[in-house]
Amino acid sequence: MPQQLAVIVLVDVGNALESQTLNGNTYLFDNMKLQGSQNQGTGDLVTAINGSYWQDGSQASEQVLNWLPYSLGSIPPTVPRGYEAERARQTDEQALAELEDLAVKSSAAGVDAAAELNRIRQSAGRRVKTTRRTRGRLSGQKVLDVTGKVVSNGGTEAHSYPAPVITDIYGQAVDEKVIYPAEYGSPDLVTDGWYWSATVDTSRPGTYAYTMRIQLHRLVQQGGEPLWEPVNLTCESRIRVITEPKRNAFTKAGLGLLPIPPRPFS
Amino acid sequence: MTTKPRLRETGAAAKRPISITAVVDCVGALASHSVHGHLYLYDTNKAGGSTGFGTEELRTKVRRGDQLLWNVLALECEAFVSIDDIVIDRDVIEPERKIYPGTDVAYWIGTVKKDDVQSVPYQIKFKVGTRTDPITTTLSPALFG
Amino acid sequence: MNPKVNIVVVVDVIGALSDGTLRNGNLCMIDDGSLASTGQGTPELVTVVKPGQVVTWSALAVDLQTPVEIKSITFLGPDADGGHEAEQAPPAAQAPVPHGQDGHADERHNPELDVWSGVVPYLAPGVAHPYRLEVQMYEGEYSTLHIESPALMCL
Fold it and tell me: This protein's superkingdom (chain A) (predicted)?
């Protein structure tokens, strides 16, 4: 069973906004270094995607890519959004409890709906897993500085940048139908859980480029109110697809008898 | 946009601390009991002249009065990593462990006390996974003036 | 009777590497055999099989984003009975993994291509045939751990 492939997109948001480009301000990682990915931690990552096929030529495993955008120097993604997010979480928990109650009572809603809601509630209640995957869409949140304190007087110099948001993935790898990216919802109502994911067709080896459209946010003052102004930039990366045949690990060839030495009757 | 001049991010005069972020491949570190080859360091002072981005020997350009904030990211979503200690010449800076309010996630912060420091190498100790012994950097990042 | 039996090895990679052991709940095994296997959900799984059945082992990381592979499966001879389960990896007998710090070896062994599968031969009935199961998590000096507690058995 293959592991899930994750590409981390770490953006120096302050520098990127200042210089109006992601070039030189984006650092990419994946969890495929062992499998041959190159240039980890740079803007020039080549992600190795190693497919496999059975003797009849059919694809043996499905490879799934996920993208996780982070902001360099901001409050880390392991932290919920301070007091405001904590309060939002509590109210969400409450709302979910009520929804679950409704689902149980409603004759139209089956057992599966309740189980699903329970699952959602569990995810929403577990900070570590859900907040890392995606960021909220910023609405209704307070501006915080990089130590997590609320920036109250509209002073914009010290604020922490929100995590970048991927808004599209396109380009050669998509045009040539090697990856099929889409934005998915995750059962996480606190962070508005959306993330980009793609399945990979590993039957056509080669190196393919793709482009991410990434939205950053600049804090501006409008009518005395702080406002996050979106800034859209793009950044390119590559995947390198190879595919190899599966083989039996005991015989290094086809299926055979298990190599079990004889043991005496007890 | 008419508001443009007000929107400029202030550069050198910014009150935002210089953030130094360690990205740790936790599984790699645990499998070798070392962060060598599994650590990538960055800071937010590229424009100010820092060098060595993405290596274990990041050199952060600092001046007296700069606030430095260290934090850490795990390459694997599910892994735990934290900074256990920062070993550095305390005549230059005394990093302190603090907690993001309302959480159990820590960061380290301090203020540079000297001007024109030559090169001040330091070590970072990481707590990784559920391992009790911290893992210390083998190559040293540094501050310079 | 189903002609196939699947054995799944589930590993908490970060827990196993942190503790330096596959014990402490860091590994569990389950099979989907239709006969009376024992020790489901533990490292002491004894899978009951019949000659001619095809057994397939696969490894799965609890958290899905960390690498874990079966490095070797070695059936133990009678001498190895009550075998000591040293927690350190034995000298690598199987396909050696490149040890480069940066992992940039040109020719790399892709363990994901390995299918750990075989036909059950005639076995003395009622006797557990233990095997050493070696798993590799990432690479490095401490990346390989093993257990010797699981077994196959014919009734």
Answer: Bacteria
Contact at 8 Å (CB) between B11 and B47?
A: yes
Q: Which residue type does C34 have?
A: S
Kindly indicate whether the ipTM for this predicted assembly is greater than 0.95, answering yes or no.
Answer: no
- On whether residue B3 sits in a domain, the answer given is no
Q: The domain containing residue B47 runs over which residues?
A: 14-144
- Quote the pLDDT of residue C48: 97
Helix (H, G, I), strand (E, B) or coil at B65: coil
Of C68, C73, C127, the CB nearest to A266: C127
Question: Tokens at residue B18, please?
Answer: 């210089």
Q: Which residue of C has its CA nearest to B36?
A: C101
Q: What is the CATH number of domain A5-77+134-245?
A: 2.60.40
Nearest residue, CB atoms, A75 vs list B28, B100, B109: B100
Q: Which residue in chain C is spatially nearest to B77 when comparing CA positions?
A: C65
**Are A10 and B42 within 8 A, CB to CB?**
yes
Contact: A34, C78; criterion CB under 8 Å: no
Q: Return residues 52-111 of C near A (CB < 8 Å).
A: 54-55, 58-61, 64-68, 70, 73, 75-78, 102-104, 108, 110
**Tokens of residue B134, six digits:** 């911290």
Put simply, whether A6 touches C (Cβ < 8 Å) is yes
**Residue pLDDT, tens place only, C76-90:** 987 665 545 554 444
pLDDT > 90 fraction of chain B, expressed in percent and rounded = 79
Q: Do A262 and C124 touch (CB under 8 A)?
A: yes
**Chains contacting chain C through 3 or more C-beta pairs under 8 A:** A, B
Q: Which range, A72-86, A203-217, B8-22, is most confident? A: A203-217
CATH number at residue B29: 2.60.40.3910
CB contact under 8 A, A3 and C127: no
Question: Measured between alpha carbons, how far is C61 from A31 in angstroms, rounded to an integer?
Answer: 14
**3-state SS assignment for residue C44:** coil
pLDDT at B29: 96
What is the torsion angle, in degrees rounded to the nearest 10, for the CA atoms of residue C19, residue C21, residue C24 and residue C27? 120
pLDDT at A144: 72
**Pick from C19, C66, C101: CB nearest B27:** C66
Q: Is residue B23 part of a domain?
A: yes
d(CA A36, CA A167) in angstroms, rounded, equals: 28
pTM: 0.81
Dump pLDDT digits (tens) for B62-101.
Answer: 999 999 999 999 988 778 999 999 999 999 999 999 998 7
